[in-house]
Design a protein that fits this description.
The complex is a heterodimer.
Chain A lengths: L5 H28 L3 H25 L5 H8 L2 H33 L6 H45 L10 H4 L3 H15 L5 H4 L9 H34 L3 H6 L12 H31 L5 H17 L4 H42 L1
Helix pairs in contact in A: 1-5, 1-7, 1-9, 1-11, 2-7, 2-9, 2-13, 3-4, 4-5, 4-11, 4-12, 4-13, 5-11, 5-12, 7-13, 11-12
Chain B lengths: L2 H18 L8 H11 L6 E8 L2 E8 L5 H13 L7 H10 L9 E3 L2 H9 L3 E5 L5 E4 L29 H11 L5 E8 L5 E8 L5 H12 L9 H8 L11 E2 L3 H9 L3 E5 L6 E3 L17 H30 L7 H11 L6 H21 L2 H21 L5 H16 L3 H21 L1 H17 L1 E2 L2 E2 L43 H8 L1
Antiparallel strand pairs in B: 1-2, 2-4, 3-5, 4-5, 6-7, 7-9, 8-10, 9-10, 11-12
The chains are: A mainly alpha, B alpha+beta.
């Protein structure tokens, strides 16, 4: 079962955090934190590492078992099963949410006359095919795409360099707001907290003792890559314009012009970035499929993938009446919902620790 | 597996067992001769010869066109009929069957009639005597075969030009001549219920993983088929994913490529009658390597390899990219270029996807016709293609000039890929991507590319991930993937080999520099 190397885990985590935050979350982050955005990123990164420490601690206690299976030993079955059902629904919901954001983005920007469902179905097929192949191949796919995505991003940042207003750099030192840091962190920590998925993929990892190290490095690189993009956005558009743009990253890419010949590279770069979104949706979706497989006691997850992918696509098309609904959910309810979801493993860890301590006491007697 | 296919396999196995059943007819000469004649009835190419030597009846059976009769006369028959060779019939049988006092090597003694039949069909001469149930087989096989030829498909400017032939033993010798080591192992299997084709699996012991050899042997051993006439019969039966369009084993007509594969720890499968042996395992990048890469200087080679990767992308996506930007994203191209594209498409009645399909299919037809046409009319095809499809179609306003350029560039790109199999696969995959690009623009192109990428990542060739050494990443193997580093830096063997030390060379660059001084 141990097929995913630590290097693959590291690369996937960078893509995982990078993808949606850069594409869909940048404007809200800059809206709340302005020039403190980079600081907020660092705080969230630190929170991620701390949270990951507890998740790994829980996972390490039964390194080769799945959470859906061993959770029963920690909490009573009548609590554990509803919790796992909640996780299944939530992961399916999250994958549908990201898919919806992506559908809206593509339809609004490039394919105005194409219905949402057509884009959703196309993407859903790719996600289902990948999920069917399992985690080993998914991590390998991410490994190959990582270099392409990062190279494209670095190339983009380098080409945009001459357009930046460097005098704005001073604001990073002078402009601070306590509320901005608080509000930004509250919004951003749950996004980094998605490291929770580690709990579900832990049995697939090789060299499990190095997981914490991989997460730390993954966080450092994520903060660095995302941070540079955020700083570039601030230097290019300033905080007010950025927070009013729906897709600031897209607008930044549109500034790239090579030798006045290739005018709009955005399609190409966006399609490369889209692969990172695809990775994120697939990871979350595959976990949902795996949870259901384990709950139903099936040996193989493959028969479920296409039917669940259809549910995901249907959910993505019908979950909101428009992109305003999605934005409202994302900015108002998402963070709190995520905190609840991410706190559950901590509850399991506390109960497990108490149980173990009680057992030790009994043995001592 | 359905119950019907199980029953079918069982009946085939029973049939095979029946065929393999041994036949022993004892010492009686006439009944044996009769049995042979009955077995080989309606076979005019089988020669039955009956003679009496030292008052003992002898029977000789062989395939006329597959035996060197002069050699048989000189080395065998001369002794049998000579009155000085033996004193009596008993002595004659004793000298030939027990002492094997004839000047032919590698003879074998048989008692099973069925085995004797197999030997005759393999080109051996069977001799049997009255009063002894044993038979002797003389390996005097000789038949007309193609003589040494030059490579026709994998051409190089610098490097050997020798190519494999149809005869399996000649092919094996060509490799043996290059690797003079007892570690070069050759295992033979006979595949094909009727053709009984020889299949030789060769590997370099100590360099190749033993479990890989065993796996390949098992996979080939499981093949139950009427006949094997070429390596492709074997290839399709042993692929990891038979439904994949991607080739999962390499083919070569060059003995040096086969030898290099063996030195890397791969397995070479020779099939009798096929001048193109199979090499396994293989990864995606090996199809973009040519034999010439190792005969030219590494700078040049590395540049050409990178060029090939570029052309590979062009071959797969160029028409789709054109369709996507003309249909959905015209703002991507500069205004001046956009105007000239629009001007050239002004009179064309079809949308660009239809236009591209028409041209691509015409090109594929032209290519296929060019391969199959007799040489005498080959030129006519070229003229037809260039004038009718190129010039006249543009003038008639059926296709745009720019589309002709795009199809031509794509055509060139597909032939830059050294692995013909992969080139063909890429040409094939171009069509679904074109449909996706025509319906979803760049987004469709991206979806198509990701689907192909997902498939390729999940593919394995005999256990080796198809996209290794990039996914999963093996940095030590990258030195011979996108570029080729000089030989003095390629110290370790590829990680998929099963060598103990993993060292391929031990050339110290400083020693080389000292020598230069």
């Amino acid at each position: 079962m141990e097929q995913v190397s630590q290097n693959q885990l590291l690369l996937l985590f960078i893509l995982f955090t990078f993808s949606t935050l850069i594409g869909f979350g940048a404007n809200h982050l800059i809206y709340t934190s302005q020039y403190d955005s980079f600081l907020v990123l660092c705080i969230s990164g630190l929170a991620e590492v701390i949270f990951a420490f507890f998740v790994i601690k829980l996972a390490k206690r039964r390194p080769n078992k799945f959470f859906a299976h061993y959770g029963k030993d920690i909490l009573p079955t009548w609590i554990h099963i509803p919790v796992m059902v909640l996780y299944f629904v939530s992961f399916l919901q999250i994958s549908a949410l990201i898919l919806r954001e992506y559908e809206d983005f593509i339809v609004q920007t490039y394919l105005p006359r194409t219905p949402n469902w057509a884009v959703g179905v196309m993407f859903g097929i790719v996600v289902a095919v990948t999920a069917r192949l399992g985690f080993e191949n998914l991590f390998r796919i991410a490994q190959g795409l990582f270099y392409l995505c990062i190279l494209a991003n670095i190339g983009n940042l380098a080409l945009i360099g001459k357009e930046l207003q460097w005098n704005r750099l001073m604001a990073f030192i002078t402009n601070h707001s306590g509320h901005g840091i608080y509000a930004g962190s509250y919004f951003l920590i749950p996004i980094f907290g998605e490291v929770l998925v580690l709990l579900f993929i832990f049995p697939y990892l090789t060299q499990k003792h190095k997981t914490m190290k991989s997460i730390i490095w993954g966080t450092i690189f994520s903060v660095l890559f995302i941070g540079i993009n955020i700083v570039w956005l601030l230097l290019l558009f300033g905080p007010n314009l950025t927070s009013h743009l729906t897709y600031p990253m897209l607008e930044m890419i549109r500034y790239v012009r090579i030798a006045d010949f290739i005018q709009n590279l955005d399609h190409l770069l966006i399609s490369i970035w889209a692969t990172t979104v695809f990775i994120k949706i697939t990871v979350v979706f595959t976990i949902a499929v795996q949870i259901l497989t384990q709950l139903l006691g099936l040996k193989d997850h493959r028969p479920l993938t296409f039917s669940l992918a259809a549910v995901m696509v249907a959910l993505s098309v019908n979950m909101a009446s428009g992109s305003v609904d999605i934005t409202n959910f994302y900015t108002q309810s998402w963070a709190t919902f995520s905190y609840c979801l991410e706190a559950i493993p901590l509850l399991y860890l506390v109960v497990d620790t108490i149980k173990q301590a009680a057992k030790k006491k009994e043995h001592g007697r | 597996m359905s119950i019907f296919s199980k029953l079918k396999i069982r009946s085939q196995d029973q049939q095979e067992k029946k065929q393999k059943r041994q036949v022993f007819l004892g010492e009686d000469f006439d009944s044996r001769l009769e049995w042979f004649k009955e077995t080989f009835n309606q076979s005019i190419d089988i020669t039955f010869h009956e003679l009496t030597a030292n008052h003992t009846r002898c029977g000789i059976i062989f395939l006329q066109a597959m035996v060197d009769q002069q050699l048989f006369d000189d080395q065998v028959l001369k002794y049998i009929v000579s009155p000085h060779f033996a004193e009596s019939g008993r002595d004659l049988i004793h000298k030939i069957l027990d002492l094997q006092s004839v000047s032919t090597m590698c003879t074998s003694i048989l008692t099973d009639m069925q085995e004797a039949v197999d030997n005759v069909l393999d080109g051996k001469v069977i001799v049997f005597f009255e009063g002894d149930s044993r038979m002797i087989a003389f390996p005097l096989t000789s038949f007309e075969k193609r003589t040494g030829s030059e490579t026709t498909n994998e051409n190089v400017i610098r490097g050997p030009r020798e190519a494999f032939l149809e005869d399996i033993h000649t092919n094996v010798t060509m490799v043996r001549r290059r690797i003079k080591s007892p570690n070069l192992k050759m295992d033979q299997l006979i595949i094909g219920r009727y053709t009984k084709t020889k299949v030789i699996i060769s590997h370099l012991e100590g360099v190749c993983r033993e479990d890989l050899v065993e796996d390949i042997k098992q996979r080939i051993g499981r093949i139950k088929i009427d006949g094997v006439l070429a390596g492709s019969y074997i290839e399709e039966c042993i692929d990891d994913r038979p439904l994949s369009p991607f080739p999962q084993s390499q083919k070569t007509e060059r003995p040096d490529v086969a030898a290099a594969a063996l030195l890397e720890g791969r397995v070479v499968i020779f099939v009798d009658g096929d001048p193109v042996p199979l090499i396994a395992p293989v990864n995606f990048y090996m199809f973009l390597q040519s034999a010439e890469d190792y005969y030219q200087r590494y700078f040049l080679t590395s540049f050409i390899r990178l060029l090939r990767y570029g052309w590979l992308i062009v071959s797969l996506t160029f028409p789709s990219f054109y369709i996507a930007i003309t249909t959905f994203h015209p703002e991507m191209i500069p205004t001046s270029l956009l105007l000239s594209v629009a001007a050239s498409r002004e009179n064309v009645p079809f949308p660009s996807i239809v236009e591209a399909f028409l041209m691509e299919i015409a090109f594929e037809g032209l290519r296929e016709a060019g391969i199959r046409t007799p040489k005498a009319v080959g030129q006519a095809i070229g003229i037809l293609g260039a004038i009718i499809i190129g010039q006249a179609a543009v003038q008639a306003g059926i296709v745009s000039a720019i589309m002709v350029i795009i199809v031509s560039i794509t055509g060139i790109a597909s032939f830059v890929i050294p692995g013909y199999d992969l080139g063909f696969t890429v040409r094939l995959l171009r069509f679904p991507i074109m449909i996706l690009a025509g319906t979803f623009g760049i987004f469709g192109l991206m979806i198509g590319t990701i689907l192909i990428y997902i498939h390729v990542v999940s593919l394995r060739s005999f256990g080796l991930p198809y996209l290794s050494p990039t996914a999963p990443l093996r940095t030590s193997d990258l030195k011979d993937t996108f570029i080729r580093v000089p030989w003095w830096l390629m110290r370790t063997r590829p990680s998929f080999s099963g060598s103990n030390d993993g060292m391929r060379s031990n050339i110290n660059k400083s020693i080389l520099e000292d020598d230069e001084d």
